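Session log. Operator J.P. requested a structure for one protein chain; no other inputs attached. Running the standard single-chain path with token output.
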Amino acid sequence: MLFNSFEFALFLPLSFLLYWFVFKEHLKAQNFFLLAISYVFYGWWDWRFLSLIAFSSLVDFIAGQQIEKSSTKARKKLFLWISICTNLGFLGFFKYFNFFAESFADMVSMIGMQANPWSLNVILPVGISFYTFQTMSYTIDLYRGQMKAEKDPIAFFAYVSFFPQLVAGPIERAVNLLPQFKIKREFSYEQGADGMRLILWGLFKKVVIADNCALFVNEVFANYESASGLELILGAVFFAFQIYGDFSGYSDIAIGTAKLFGFNLMTNFRTPYFSRDMAEFWRRWHISLSTWFRDYVYIPLGGSRVGKGRAVFNTFVIFVVSGFWHGANWTFIVWGALNAVYFLPLLLMGKNRKNTDTVAENRFLPNLKELWQMGTTFALTCLAWVFFRAESVGDAWQYIVGIFDVEFIKTSNLHLKYITKSLFLMVPFWLTMEWLVRSKSIPNREFKWIKAHWFDYALIILILLFRSFNKELEFIYFQF
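Structure written below.
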């Protein structure tokens, strides 16, 4: 079920009313109701996915019990690895089996041997990359002694399948989200109003910004051979806007929806395109994933508190694995490696923690140095996004080569007509709003300028939804 669909426009208010007016007095009943509607929400795509998430939840619930009960470290580690292998096994089978089979066949053919790869015709379960990481955080934190095992299966299953952030994050840690299922929740008008503001802003970013950018981006990337250098640059820039509006828009809707049910999810984006270097960018982009890899992969490998050679290795590991997490294609691996290359000079010079404050703090406009830093960081990010968006590494390379074509502005085959007029008004408005709240710890919750009553909220949401009903474009990160 898509957030920008007619089904969700009915599903959300109905679930909200039942949750607060029918199940309000009974915590376990509320949790069971959340579990039920989360399974309805997830099963809306394909009911067969439910068996996978239910089995994964069951394995991790039992593994967590055994980790806590075990008296020896070896036995604790055994159940930890059962949890990790189950989750990564599902992820590897459904998402990466065909990639490894085809890559092996290509490698064999390079040495003159013939290979017929065996591929599987399987559907990638929606959100599997997100909820597997979420459940692994539970067993890992248990093994580390950072939390107690959950005894209530309903609360645990509801935590794993919590519908607002189930299919595209934020990837919540068990230590943060699971305890919220154990305490009585009271409805707060202020919290509900904050949630509605976030939902509105998220829908705006998705429906108005991302989906309109997609019209031009799809046309340029599909016909990059005939596009001019100017169009290719604009295609990369508008894809940067598209993916940010699309993904951060989803996160805003997820966080806002969770607030309507009395839950607080972590912030996933903090105005990343105003970053002054790539290290700052990755502290502000997809925060739930970058911190997950930092805490569960990078630091256990030694992080940067090792020799320079090992620190370089660890950096490449974390970025390449992060790229591979996004999809079974060499384009994502190259995208991750390219970001590692961007990050390495900062690490080697000890400047990766230089820009931890807010750009142009206590000033309305940035100075020339900050403007140059933001511009170069954004340009490098757009260059990397080309590999993320392209169908193959070869296509991405040809796309970049085309940017430097001698005929920078061609007079034929122009695709600029696909840039809608609304973008010339809405993109500057959107970026201005982002700039105004850049110093806030939770940027998108500070849009207090959106003043409306509940009826007005519902009306605005319906307008935004009906605008997207004729296409109902999926969120980009659903494919991951």
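Operator note: The mean pLDDT is 85.
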